[in-house]
Amino acid sequence: xxxxxxxxxxxxxxxxxxxxxxxxxxxxxxxxxxxxxxxxxxxxxxxxxxxxxxxxxxxxxxxxxxxxxxxxxxxxxxxxxxxxxxxxxxxxxxxxxxxxxxxxxxxxxxxxxxxxxxxxxxxxxxxxxxxxxxxxxxxxxxxxxxxxxxxxxxxxxxxxxxxxxxxxxxxxxxxxxxxxxxxxxxxxxxxxxxxxxxxxxxxxxxxxxxxxxxxxxxxxxxxxxxxxxxxxxxxxxxxxxxxxxxxxxxxxxxxxxxxxxxxxxxxxxxxxxxxxxxxxxxxxxxxxxxxxxxxxxxxxxxxxxxxxxxxxxxxxxxxxxxxxxxxxxxxxxxxxxxxxxxxxxxxxxxxxxxxxxxxxxxxxxxxxxxxxxxxxxxxxxxxxxxxxxxxxxxxxxxxxxxxxxxxxxxxxxxxxxxxxxxxxxxxxxxxxxxxxxxxxxxxxxxxxxxxxx
Length: 453
Description:
Its main location: membrane. By secondary structure, this protein is mainly α. It is built from 16 helices and four strands.
């Protein structure tokens, strides 16, 4: 049934042919005994501390003899955490934006060395003030002489959009401020800046729109101050106070961090545990250990203890990278967060045992593990908020292995909530429930395959 038995039979046949023992019976012709003799080291009970320590020491020595692999497993979380913060932690900058201003006869060179604004229609062009604000928001301005060339720049992907200032923009804007609701339609039209954007990229276009809108507010406030008007007139009638949770301008990495951390903590034990057990199965080490008297319980606990030691080291590396090196927000209980992370890792170990028992090939187990983590990555709320899912999918996802834990992590880390909150309790309960489900499925699968019987 395996490579060792086939090799044994071939060796016996070769030995018989060389020594003229062709009259010996083939192994399959031996009479079947009336009852199966018990193994020499059949355990008297399913748990023995000496056997457990022997298995644990064997696993430990195997890791010590594979230092490069061990270092890779320990440093992979740090590399992933640093890479995520470098990629996700910074907003887009130096985005090209075209500019066409009909009130600047010599182009953007008219904006150099301007005198202070004197709050009149004959003062310096106000388009220069707005463009200066956009430069401070790290937008890269490109000048064009006509609308068609500016449009073609966006069509060819050379710019993310372009602005057009009418010829009487400054005069019309001053009149619009002075006369208010009495302004004519022509004044309203000429005081507007026309904008064409490439909206194919959600994040880039949204951030450019945000910077342009906030830029208008900033430069009109400065204009109000220069004209001795209250700067509050430039504000929208909506004032955002200090946030109850979080910061005023959050970063995308702050939203992603809980999902990224728990995804790492779920997948890394799967990768290492499945690989270790499948290696033992394919090399025959698992079978030899069981024949020698080890029990499945001792093998599972020995692997689990070693994995928990490894993931503890990985947790330290991940938390140092996210919260010490890059200062992501953390306001809650560290002990509660660590308990949740360990439960997620224990769930990953339980799922790894299920894959190792259910599949006969390491390749198939790896495919299943990768497919699972891709699905968890999509549904746990890293790419898009959980609240934006279809209601039917949201009902199922709320009881999936990882998504409730991600919401609980975010509630603890960024809102300082505890176990008295329903979201936090739900995250802990679903993680424990899925760990029990994976463990039960592993037990029944091993029993069906008579593994260790």
